[in-house]
Amino acid sequence: MAVSMKSAREIELMREAGRLLSRVHEQLGAAIRPGMSTLEIDQLGEKLIRDLGCVPNFLHYSGYPASICVSVNDEVVHGIPRKDRILKEGDIVSLDAGLIYKGYHSDAARTHAVGRISPEAQQLIEVTRQSFFEGIKMAREGCHLHDISNAIDAYVSRFGYGIVRDLVGHGIGTSLHEDPQIPNFAQKRKGVRLQAGMTLAVEPMINAGGWEVDFLNDGWTVVTRDGSLSAHYENTILVTDGEPEILTL
Ligand code: MF3
Ligand code: CO
What we know:
The protein is α+β, with helices and mostly antiparallel strands. The protein has helices at 8-31, 38-51, 119-136, 145-157; strands at 55-56, 68-72, 75-77, 92-101, 104-113, 162-163, 169-171, 178-182, 199-202, 205-207, 213-215, 222-224, 230-232, 235-238, 245-246. Strands 8-7-9-14-15 form a 5-stranded antiparallel sheet, sandwiched between helices. Strands 1, 2, 4 and 5 form a 4-stranded antiparallel sheet that branches. A hairpin with a 6-residue loop joins β7 and β8. α1 (8-31) packs antiparallel against α2 (38-51) and α3 packs antiparallel against α4 (145-157). It is globular. The two termini are 28 Å apart. The model has no long low-confidence stretch (mean pLDDT 98). The chain binds 2-amino-4-trifluoromethylsulfanyl-butyric acid and cobalt (II) ion. Residues 107, 170, 201, 203, 234 line the site of cobalt (II) ion. This is Methionine aminopeptidase. Monomer. Its EC number is 3.4.11.18. A divalent metal cation 2 binds at residues 107, 170, 203, 234.
């Protein structure tokens, strides 16, 4: 497995790709409201990305038909935006978005509340977000890749939540998905040694119930097997010899 190291010039481009995506996410998050269709979110997201002079990297990726993945409630990831899928008060909605800036990819996801949500749903969103920050404490030169996985698992497991195993984080750069794969659950091996200059998309997907998921017949949508809620939080980060730099915040 070859993990690519980014040069100073590439890191500058990754920073800009990340900064621009963080703006897209801010505006998408601010637009969420009951009554909105998931297709409207996708259309807004694509416009925001293109207005920045960038290209949506999810569109047509392996045939994916939209620019933003919009996953509601028990949908884990890769929900396909639809005109007739209307958000309602109390839902949670995960938005996964990415873009290409001058040949460099960024990738980030957030789960948002639609209006007022239950305390249980709020906690799931917050624990999922925090698990990312627990994980990336280990994302520094000298640590190993699976220190990140183990830290996420240790934190999430305290809450009794299920950690999705079928989908993982990934390296990112001139491609959306590069080596290495980054599991969010505990690993026996140490994984590759982390070095300054690696760019990674760390993305815990956490279920309120069991870890098991199903893949729907639309070819994309991943749902929890037990129907429980699921949350997603992802940023593109840069490994350094100190604190990691979060490029999409
Ligand atoms: N953000 C997703 C990931 O991290 C990419 C979605 S794949 C797509 O792998 F095809 F839906 F775009
Ligand atoms: Co990703």
